[in-house]
Amino acid sequence: MALLAGTIAPVFGVMALGFLAVRMGAFGQVGAKRLVLFVFNAAIPIMLFYRISAIDFPEQIEWSFLLAYFGSAFATYAAGMASARFVFRRPLKEQAIYGLGAGFSNTVLLGIPLLVSAFGPEATLPIFLIITFHSATLLPVTVALMEAGKRRSGEDTSFRVSRLLVEILANPIILGILLGVAANVTGVVLPGPVDVLAGLMATIASPCALIALGASLAGYRLTGQIGPAAALAVFKLILHPILAWVIAVPILGLGAPWAPVVVVMAGMPSGAMVYLFGARYETASDVAAGTVVVASAASVVTLSILLVLMGA
What φ, ψ does residue 98 adopt, rounded to 5°? Predict the structure, then answer.
């Protein structure tokens, strides 16, 4: 337990510093948004590029672990949609946000620093493989469902699949991963000063990401949506990792580091992208914000249990 506390307490402690900095007026929501932009557009992409370019890829990659993660993610997504339709009686476009809240993990701001801290550098490869396909799979499905919901409501709109694909490929995090893979495959060696700069950025990326996440959570409010938010948090923090473990271990027989990364990543709280999507499309944004807050707070307990069970 002492080792676990030494792993998880600093991670959530840095998050708490970002939260308190906003609540105590050290910097406001504008500063928090700028910090999030710095993390997403520069720090994390450079860190991923730097680490991936130096990875010694194993002779055999357990590609089946992607089936474990995304199979469980879409099953949990479906559970979120079902609760929206049959329990909360929400229309299709809002069901998509409920599904995203149940199945979309905080892979970058929380997943990277926590998993690397818990399982070491060998977790980097499975982490970046999940991140590579994460937004590219769950976000297009969500957009398609919301657009279908608008069409069903009589709005004259079309699917923006091509535009979404361009947005995904232009995502700085995806670019960092792709460039890191290209540098690794081609054996590109960075010039000395550039290598030092990239190393420094890789060092500050995780703490900056945690501060940005805490600062972002300080701006969210629960506005009477505690019921749906709590239900989606249960799906995300409990159902998703259970399904991931069932697929990864008893069915596929995955071992370390693949199985622990899959299960703990599945147990991450709902990502901030859930709220951003809700706000962007003006669809269930209050439920999305509440889900992010509730799941992030409860994950302090649930992630501690998962890390113990998975041998962190």
Answer: -60, -45
Write down the domain spans for the chain: 2-309
Cβ 136 vs Cβ 174: under 8 Å: yes
In the predicted model, residues of the chain with pLDDT beneath 50 are 3, 153-157
Q: Please tell me whether residue 105 adopts helix, strand or coil conformation.
A: strand
Instruction: Look up residue 307 and give its two tokens.
Output: 């890390």
Amino acid 156: pLDDT: 47
Name residues whose C-beta falls within 8 Å of residue 32's C-beta, 6 or more positions apart in sequence: 18, 22, 212, 215, 216, 218, 219
Q: Are 11 and 117 in contact (CB under 8 A)?
A: yes
Among 115, 116, 85, residue whose Cα is nearest residue 98: 85
Cα 79 to chain center, whole Å? Answer: 18
The pLDDT assigned to 4 comes to: 55
Burial class (CB in 10 A: 0-12, 13-18, 19+), 5: exposed
d(CA 27, CA 22): 5
Per DSSP, what are the bridge partners of residue 270? 105
Taking the C-alpha atoms of residue 278 and residue 143, their distance in angstroms, rounded to an integer, is 11
Torsion sign across C-alpha atoms 75, 77, 79, 82: negative
- The CB-based long-range contact list for 32-39 (8 Å cut-off, 24+ gap) reads 32/212, 32/215, 32/216, 32/218, 32/219, 35/208, 35/211, 35/212, 35/215, 36/212, 36/215, 36/216, 36/272, 38/208, 38/212, 39/108, 39/109, 39/205, 39/208, 39/209, 39/212
The helix/strand/coil state of 154 is coil
Nearest to 116 by CA among 222, 2, 264: 264
pLDDT the model gives residue 155: 47
DSSP 26: S
Global confidence as pTM? 0.76
- Amino acid 207: pLDDT: 84
> CATH number of the domain at 2-309, please?
1.20.1530.20
